[in-house]
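Hi U.,

Before I forget, here's the chain from the pilot set. I'm dumping it here mostly so it's searchable later in email.
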Amino acid sequence: MKKQAGFTIIELVMVIVILGILSAFALPKFANFGSDARAASLAGVAGAMRSAAAIAHAQQLVDGDGPAEDVTLEGEDITMVEGYPTANAAGIILAAGIDVASYDIDTAGDATAGSTYVIGYTASTCIATYTAANSSSYNVVIETSGC
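Structure:
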């Protein structure tokens, strides 16, 4: 009697079919990494904005400056309004060290209280928004439903 030394064609076909079925179920779960990456990037931007605003505010308090006086962080002059960075490139973006060239949307506010800076991706529901302080506090909001 002869001993079998390999796999039969039926066994090989069955393994290929099973792998195909498994990949059909697994692929959609892992195919949407771009959306997750954009959402994580915006979460990082929002965190950087919150931290930078708190640090700039603390520096202004330590210096004993008025709420509209600029502060210096790491050799950079950060423009302030109501005790927090302004919603523009000379304020929150400079304080947080954000590279706005990495994003599709870069809508700067201005140096007034309550103005907003929006940064994000093409979809209007994939953004991080910084609102400059209006009397006492700033606001950072992220919207990732459209990422």
